[in-house]
Amino acid sequence: MDAATFFGAQPFTVQSAPGRVNLLGEHTDYNDGFMLPVATPQSTTVSVALNNNPEFEIYSATLGSAVAFGQDDKAPEGFAQYIEGCIRLLQQRAIEIPPLRMHVTSNVPLGSGLSSSAALEVATLRAMRALLGFELDDRSLALIAQQSEIQYAGVNCGIMDQMASSLADSEHMLFLDARTLATRLLPIPADSELIVIDSGMPRTLAASAYNVRRAECEAAARELGVQALRDVAAVDDVERLAPPLRERARHVVSENLRVLEAAEGVDAARFGELMNASHASLRDDYEVSIPELDELCDLLRAANGVHGARLTGAGFGGAVVALCRTGAAAAAGAAVVERFNAGASGRSAALLLPITTDTRTQ
Ligand code: ADP
Ligand code: MG
Questions:
Q1: Per the database record, which ranges form the GHMP kinase N-terminal domain (predicted)?
Q2: Fold (CATH) for 3-184
């Protein structure tokens, strides 16, 4: 059901927010570190209107699922919790949220590591802000979206996804400092475009491993006597830690340095090298890759016109991203997907729309 059918004759307010693909700076956000996400051309759209019934009525056209809950009730478990969190957190700031009807639709793939969850939260908050007219800047909106995911959807996430969805665009990389929340829009290296491949591998281990890695990073920071691993200046400083904290810390410290170098402005070839080094660090030191993600990155690096490739998102499945020469991304991606899927039965990797110069300017 589309939004026009859902709302009938009633006028409604429409707002969208993008997903994100992180080019560099993985598992750094909860270490107060640095990252470089780009907004995807794909986005989530939330349409909203006042409800005559004393309930929040929400329909996701993506899932074909309708949910309703009252002002004093909890939302049922599932996608509505991301939205309920946004509503409740605004109410806690003394912003009056009357009963609403909401329609959600999206072309961000769900659960592929492109952050459809942040896109849903940010689009929901934007739609309510546009309808109800309360004052909330884009940074505050991202922080509320993050808290909604942590407190209401039960996902202990960092701040990157929501900041990217709220502040990034598809024409730039968003340099983000997770400690200060300072941001800068930087140009994507000249003469290059991006390709994203969803590995199709289930992310079954992702949530538990994520929590273990966070705890390891906190332990490493404690042992090094710093507030967060962001405060470790040089890779050698982690050498006195015992494994596996040494390796975990080495990833975070070296990854922050890679982001800082890339943010200074490097050409596409160097940026590709930094992506390759990031993947090796995530694979060997942080141990969040799986053989299928390694294989996809190897295939991408061997393809014509690819500068570099890495897993993107938390790992254990999800997507990989590559930086390619302008005009080379679509063909490289299609060839890699075909070879990868032919490599073993049951594989279902898929090319997600390349972020090309064309899609960037849409
Ligand atoms: P990712 O953010 O990487 O796509 P997550 O597991 O964090 O993966 O978030 C996916 C969840 O977000 C879905 O299972 C669903 O609950 C919710 N979600 C995201 N987009 C939508 C949508 N368009 N409609 C309904 N639920 C959505
Ligand atoms: Mg998510």
A1: 82-167
A2: Ribosomal Protein S5; domain 2 (3.30.230)
Q: What CA–CA distance (Å, rounded) separates 148 from 208?
A: 20
User: What's the CA gap between 288 and 269, in Å, rounded?
Assistant: 25
CA distance 251 to 241: 13
pLDDT at 306 over 80: yes
Beta bridge mates, 58: 67, 102
Position 128 pLDDT exceeds 90: yes
Which pLDDT score, from 0 to 100, does residue 202 have? 83
Report residues near ion ligand 2: CB below 5 Å: 115, 117
In this structure, what token pair is assigned to residue 191?
């003469």
The correct CATH number of 188-358 out of 3.40.50.360, 3.40.190.290, 3.30.70.890, 3.30.470.20 is 3.30.70.890
Q: Is the CB of 316 under 6 A from ligand 1?
A: no
Determine the pLDDT at residue 362.
40
Residue ranges of the domains in the chain?
3-184, 188-358
The answer, yes or no, to whether any atom of ligand 1 lies below 6 A from the CB of 263, is no
Closest ligand to residue 121's CA:
1
Indicate which atom in ligand 1 lies nearest the CA of residue 113.
3
Q: Are 15 and 100 in contact (CB under 8 A)?
A: no
- The pLDDT assigned to 208 comes to 82
Question: What is the pLDDT averaged over residues 313-330?
Answer: 94
- Whether the predicted model's global pTM rises above the 0.80 cut: yes
Residue 161 designated active-site: yes
Looking at residues 147-167, what average pLDDT do you find?
95
Choosing from 32, 161, 177, 285, which is the catalytic residue?
A: 161
Q: Could you tell me which residue, 210 or 271, shows the higher pLDDT?
A: 271
Of 142, 128, 129, 226, residue with least CA distance to 183: 142
Whether residue 132 is predicted with pLDDT greater than 80 in this model: the reply is yes
Q: Whose CA is nearest to atom 3 of ligand 1?
A: 113
CA–CA separation, 283 vs 310, rounded Å? 10
